[in-house]
């Protein structure tokens, strides 16, 4: 079951967020996404369906978050809480974009996901649970949808860390 203790176990960096209300909203968005997507657990979801990979959504999310945190530590003009929350939440919409298919645990695009990509559904979920606009912006702008807006400093970091992880993983396929 996707609950607070499960999420703190798979995303320990949530505890690095200094703001307790922001920590709570990060947890809430994942719980709500799992509820709406009907996921009992999320550790087996691949991070992408675009390439052949064994990397999970959780592994990708942790890698993006930790790369972004390292970048934020090297600068003095980035909000670390927003970086961490944005990194952990950037792909939360994939719980609506993907669905289990068949008895062998295969994951495919959901009917909803064929119409609404994860940056849009993730931003909507984030708004629904009360995440701050800065985090909603990161979720909405982290992928190609972000080419149509001016990204914040924190959104630039998450966007590039996301694509660094994807491009390196693509070399393996």
Descriptive account of the structure:
This protein is mainly alpha-helical and 173 residues long. It has a single domain (4-172), classed as Hypothetical protein af1432, CATH 1.10.3210. Helices cover 56% and strands 5% of the residues. It is built from eight helices and two strands. It has helices at 4-10, 20-37, 57-73, 80-89, 94-97, 118-129, 133-141, 153-172, and strands at 98-101, 106-109. A two-stranded antiparallel ribbon has the order 1-2. Strand 1 and strand 2 (106-109) form a beta hairpin. The longest helix has 20 residues, at 153-172. It is globular.
Proportion of helical residues? 55-70%
Task: Characterize the main sheet.
Answer: 2 strands, antiparallel
Strand tally, please? 2
What CATH first level would be assigned? Mainly Alpha
Question: In total, how many domains does the architecture comprise?
Answer: 1
Order of SSEs: HHHHHEEHHH
Structural class: mainly alpha
Q: Report the principal-axis shape.
A: globular
CA gyration radius, whole angstroms = 15 Å
Strand order of the largest sheet: 1-2
- Catalogue the unreliable spans: none
Strand percentage, roughly? under 5%
- Using the coordinates shown, work out and report the CATH topology: Hypothetical protein af1432
C-alpha termini separation: 31 Å
Q: How many individual helices?
A: 8
Overall mean pLDDT = 96
Please state the second-level CATH architecture: Orthogonal Bundle
């Amino acid at each position: 079951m996707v609950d607070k203790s499960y999420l703190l176990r798979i995303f320990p960096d949530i505890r690095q967020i200094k703001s307790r209300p922001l920590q709570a909203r990060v947890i809430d968005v994942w719980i709500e996404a799992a509820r709406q997507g009907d996921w009992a657990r999320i550790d087996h979801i691949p991070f992408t369906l675009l390439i052949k990979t064994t990397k999970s959504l959780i592994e990708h999310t942790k890698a993006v978050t930790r790369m972004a945190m390292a970048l934020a530590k090297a600068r003095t003009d980035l909000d670390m809480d927003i970086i961490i929350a944005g990194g952990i939440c950037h792909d939360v919409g994939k719980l609506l974009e993907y669905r289990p298919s068949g008895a062998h645990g295969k994951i495919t695009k959901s009917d909803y996901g064929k119409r609404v990509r994860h940056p849009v559904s993730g931003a909507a979920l984030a708004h629904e649970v009360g995440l701050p606009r800065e985090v909603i912006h990161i979720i909405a702008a982290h992928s190609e949808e972000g080419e149509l807006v001016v990204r914040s400093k924190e959104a630039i970091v998450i966007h590039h860390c996301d694509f660094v992880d994807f491009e390196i993983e693509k070399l393996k396929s």
